[in-house]
Design brief:
- The protein is of the alpha/beta class and about 180 residues long.
- The protein has a single domain, classed as Rossmann fold (3-Layer(aba) Sandwich), CATH 3.40.50.2020.
- It has four helices and eight strands; from the N terminus they run E-H-E-H-E-E-H-E-E-E-H-E.
- The strands form two sheets. Strands 3-2-4-5-6 form a five-stranded parallel sheet, sandwiched between helices. A three-stranded antiparallel sheet has the order 1-8-7.
- The protein is globular.
Length: about 180
């Protein structure tokens, strides 16, 4: 099953779990605990990552960390250039985001355009105290002045490469792979 994708594995399932645990500790330390935290995953793989992060943080703090999903489809600036996207449900935890410290969670940070769309979408749901960004992989090549506050793995890539984050909840197993784009 792990060989279904081309390229080389850069993070195994246990590596991903360790990175997510570290990110959870970093978020809690920066926030001085879990008070007023809300995690919002960006579909599709950011949502299960946010839930995993919330579970890890709850194990450390002994308190539930509110978690939800923020669909950004209609806020993207590339809708005309991308294949048809399905709108995913946005689900905010009880209490919403007003005055909260919101941590957006995604699988890969690349150009920054997804995060820009998430910030636009988030503004429609309230005014957080602050917004942070946690990603499993930061691959570089930003087109916008956006950076992650919490990173599982910095993975310098060429623009001709592709990074795949696979999650058990979506793909049946956990791994991060990197490979040349087809036709590169």
């Amino acid at each position: 099953m792990n060989d279904a994708l081309p390229g080389r594995m850069v993070l195994s399932g246990p590596d991903m779990a360790r990175a997510l645990r570290r990110v959870g500790h970093e978020v809690l330390e920066a926030n001085k605990g879990s008070a007023d935290l809300v995690l919002l995953g960006i579909p599709s793989r950011g949502v299960p990552l946010a839930h995993r992060l919330a579970q890890t943080m709850a194990e450390v703090e002994g308190e539930h960390v509110p978690c939800g999903a923020l669909d950004i489809t209609m806020y993207r600036d590339d809708l005309r250039r991308q294949p048809v996207r399905h709108v995913e449900p946005t689900s905010l935890p009880p209490g919403g985001v007003e005055g909260k410290v919101v941590v957006l969670v995604d699988d890969v940070l690349y150009s920054g355009r997804t995060v820009r769309a998430a910030l636009d979408a988030l503004a429609d749901y309230g005014r957080p105290q602050s917004v942070r960004l946690a990603v499993m992989v930061d691959r570089g090549h930003r087109e916008l002045p956006i950076r992650a506050d919490y990173v599982g793995k910095n993975l310098p890539t060429a623009k001709t490469e592709r990074v795949w984050v696979r999650l058990a909840e979506v793909d049946g197993h956990d791994e991060v792979r990197i490979a040349q784009e087809a036709g590169s």
